[in-house]
Amino acid sequence: MKQSSFYQDYFGLRDRPFTLVPDPEFLFWSPQHRRAYSVLEFGVLSRAPITLLTGEIGTGKTTLLHNLLSQLEDDVIVGLVSNAQGNRGELLQWVLNALDVPFETDATYVQNFQRLQDFLIDQYAQGKRVVLVFDEAQNISREGLEELRMLTNINSNKDELVQLILVGQPELRDMVRHPSMNQLAQRVSASFHLNRMTPDLTMKYIEHRLKAAGGSGKEFTPDACLLVHDITGGVPRLINQLCDFALLYSWTEETGRTVTSCMVQSVVDDGVFFCQRAVEREAQA
After folding, report:
1. H or E segment and range at residue 77
2. First to last CA, the chain
């Protein structure tokens, strides 16, 4: 089935405005997202040892991260590690793999560490610098985070040979703030926490996504937008899921080319959209 057979033609849209796949064209620059991006950019350009970006699931961390990585100059070597887990030896293998540094699976920790150090020194000699990005870093143990901190001790004179960007859920921020992680916290030179969007920003977010997809931005009534915020709590990923189904419902019901609060509520009542906040809201009704 072609995408055009869905609701796009009905609403005069060239694309689905609320897909979950990160797309730079749909990036909504709310004030806090601009600040978060500025902090990420500052962390890289200022050669901060560790930059920290946290926020709840679906607040746009990964989208901002990919946008930043696409803007980096050619002299920056990036190693992206997602969902890294395991002991310090396995974590080091994750790092080597992300940087495309060959290693033997039966090599000792010391041998792999030497491989990494040689690679970093070689890149530095070529006028390049290395940035290691850990997405979903809340899955790394405290021991693993301490091991990452040790990597920032690899330096040449006054220049650090590797920078870390740690991206994760609020638990990551709590881990870094723990008294046992004091040495790690002292290496964090730039940090930002993304909060959920307010009702006003949720309305602007929905309008922005619709316009980016070729619409007028007014396909959702103000009441529908406020209900979307109430149900999702202002989390972008949840907003996308709910709005996508609301457009689909409006198309199938042919109730007009405007999504009302009744249509949004129908999506929730039918159990098509599921999130904890929606369940709690239904229980209180």
Report:
1. strand 76-82
2. 38
Strand-pair category, 50-55 with 188-194: parallel
How many residues can be counted in the chain?
Answer: 285
Tokens of 69: 């990585």
pLDDT recorded at residue 209: 95
- Beta-bridged to residue 259, according to DSSP, are 220
Q: Tokens 């004091």 sit at which residue?
A: 182
Mean pLDDT (the chain, rounded): 88
Look up residue 152 and give its DSSP letter: T
State both tokens at 120.
């970093």
Rounded CA-CA distance 168/175 in Å is 11
- CA quadruple 50, 177, 97, 102: dihedral sign: positive
Q: Which residues have C-beta within 8 Å of that of residue 116, sequence separation ≥ 6? A: 92, 95, 96, 99, 101, 151, 154
**CATH class given for the domain over 31-194:** alpha beta
DSSP string computed for 193-259: EEPPPPHHHHHHHHHHHHHHTTS-S-SB-HHHHHHHHHHHTT-HHHHHHHHHHHHHHHHHHT--SSB
| CB-based contacts of 28, cutoff 8 Å, min separation 6 | 60, 204, 205, 208, 209, 236
Delimit the domains of the chain by residue range.
31-194, 197-284
Mean pLDDT in residue range 172-192: 92
Decide if 59 contacts 194 (C-beta within 8 A).
yes
